[in-house]
Amino acid sequence: MEEVSLELLKKKMQDFVKERDWEKYHTPRNLLLNMIGEVGELSEIFQWKGEVAKGVPDWDEAEKVHLGEELSDVLLNLVRLSDVCGIDLGKAALRKVQLNALKYPAPTKTDDHTSA
Question: How far apart are CA 39 and CA 74, in angstroms?
Fold first, then answer.
């Protein structure tokens, strides 16, 4: 199995769209609105679950597969939107992590100087 990268997903989406002659429909606005719809479908999965434990251990396999499909729809729409807008999503995401690290610095450890 090949390693999955944003570049691979971008290429797969380009091929998928071209094979179906959908380029004319893939405007930034249309892709964004479609992605919002997909986020809504993802939200529906969690809507009545209450708090969900990390790793969704209480979910059955069908629920996990469905979750993976909806997460994939959101990701693929985001990758396609960034491609159509000419944004290198990987570089933009790394830059954003760096900016967030500056904006929200990790707490520094201080020595405890109290005496007993």
Answer: 6
